[in-house]
Amino acid sequence: MRSPAPRALLATASVAVALAAADTYVVVLALTDMMAGVGLGIDNLQRATPIISGFLLGYIAVLPLIGRLADLTERQRVLLACLAIFVVGSAVTALAVELPVLVAGRVIQGVGGGGLVPATLAIVAQLWDRERRGTPLGVVGAVQELGSVLGPVLGAAVLAVADGRAIFWLNAVLGVLLAAAVVAVGGGMPSRPRALPVVVSLVAALVGWLALAAPEALATDLTLGVPFVPFGGSSSRVLTPIGVFALLLVALAVVLWVHGSWAVLRRADLLGALLLGGALGCVVLTFAASDPEKEVVGPLGFALLPVAAVLAVLYLAHHRRARHPLVPRGVVVGRTRWSLLVSLCVGVALVAVIVDVPLLARLVHTESETVAAFVLVRFLVAVPVGALVGGWSLRRLGDGLVSGVGLALTAVGLLVMSTWGRGSLAEWSSTVVLAAVGLGIGLALAPVNNAALADSPEDAHGTASALVVVARMIGMVVGLALLTAIGLNQYYAAVAALPDQTDSQALLDAAVVQVEYVFRGAAVAAAVGALASLALGLEGRHRTA
Questions:
Q1: Helices of type H across 96-185
Q2: How many CA atoms lie within 13 A of 104 on its CB side?
């Protein structure tokens, strides 16, 4: 089904992608409010790790399945489903007063938010021909990175007048409005859903809200409050009669939706999705839940990594035997393989800048977290600009040339950043370097997606797009852990070599050494990505007047 207004549909889907991207970063500001809302003090920061890793788990682990579903059914339908999941996750997160519910909400948010990206990229592939696809892909890449700029800004604006829950209620309202806009500009509902699943879902939403919100007027009433009384000695709002009833309704709604979509889900290879998603989930939990000051992998990492390896081997064996595997045969071939490598390298470079530039600013430039964040804005603003320029450049230049130049520029900029110390961020040249690195990373976004879409079968564009996103996110998660471990190793070596380990200035210089090595490692990743980009092609395959 082709939209009667493709540009309007792209704009609406892109705003949805930006909303999900903003939610990835806004949690940094709202984390203390979220912790307080579930009874955790600032001294329990380690217990709050699942709030962040849960979102990443949902975002990454289900991406291959959602990408495949976007190939097997109407892509607007997948987009609407992801928005619905994102809205539900946002509402659960806003209502949560206990940590397990909050983490569950974040996982659901991640599933919906992550699925928006491959669904949108697949819509671009459907609505634009190969030779005209570059600019729309650049737009998607730009708005995704623009979300990282707008997220903290919008979060700070909301927190100035309300608490952290308001951020997620705003997400839910915006998600509903965007879903309505997708229906309006996409030519109506892609297919009319059956009445029973819709009715059960609405009732489940209402009962679930009552259970989690526990309105005082009802919960304290002698008669009406009985369903809100927890079982046994529990204090959980879920372990109440109304909470259990809500869970049963949710389970029934899921069964009804799955039953109605079973033919498509079966073709999508659910066993393969479980195996590959499980392997990806183990990798995410291993590195995202680690404490970089003490360890490279998380507390369960030495158990999770072998499990990930076993699941990956089982998936490969299943892939060879399955009639219709999750990742169709003929997708990870040609330039698509190189696109995944380049995307992985982009993720490593991107996360190094996002995490360590504010850290460096706190060490040598300012004690204010706000000022340190504004230093990073010099980089963040340039990334969407680079994405737009990169997408537009594909009208004349090859994917590899645009991506290679961008990542080469990034590598050079990161090497310059690895020499920064006291006073460097106060110089005007630091703005130029940060902008150049952001521009370079942005330039690589559209070419990577364009090459993967061009070399994958038309009935597998959603899967190819999902794999590119997965590669980038894995690069961010694993790259951060490894580069931080390398930097900390150099930091401890520098501290051990100090004649006076109580000298605060010498200790600060040692901490700067840690950041320098992270930037050097990221520069190596960017250089590898630039070299791998050569395989994407230096000349445009399709030229337009």
A1: 99-127, 134-159, 164-185
A2: 14
Q: In this predicted structure, what is the pLDDT of residue 543?
A: 43
Quickly tell me which residue has 């994917």 as its tokens. 399
Residue 454 CA, chain-centre distance (Å), reads 24
The pLDDT value recorded for residue 508 is: 76
Mean pLDDT of the chain: 86
* 237, 251 Cβ separation under 8 angstroms: no
Q: Copy the structure tokens of residue 520.
A: 């050097």
CA–CA gap between residue 523 and residue 529 (Å, rounded): 10
Tokens 């600009």: give the residue.
385
Point out which residues pair with 539 in neighbouring strands.
Answer: 397
Residue 188 φ then ψ, to 5°: 95, 180
Please count the CA atoms within 13 angstroms of the CA of 245 that sit on its side-chain side. Answer: 13
Residues forming beta bridges with residue 397, ordered by sequence position: 539
Q: Which of 22-36, 69-83, 289-303, 403-417 is predicted most confidently? A: 403-417
Count of C-beta atoms within a 10 Å radius of residue 211:
23
Query: What pLDDT sits at residue 377?
Result: 83
Distance CA 373, CA 360 (A): 11
What pLDDT, on the 0 to 100 scale, is given for residue 300?
74
In b/e form, how buried is each residue of 379-415, taking b as 16+ CB within 10 angstroms?
bbbbbbbbbbbbbbbbbebbbbbbbbbbbbbbbbbbb
pTM above 0.85, yes or no: yes
Q: For 294-333, how does the pLDDT look when each residue is reduced to its tens digit (9 = 90+)?
A: 666 666 777 888 999 999 999 999 999 998 899 998 888 8
Per-residue confidence at 133, pLDDT binned at 50, 70, 90? confident
Burial of 74 (0-12, 13-18, 19+ CB in 10 A): middle
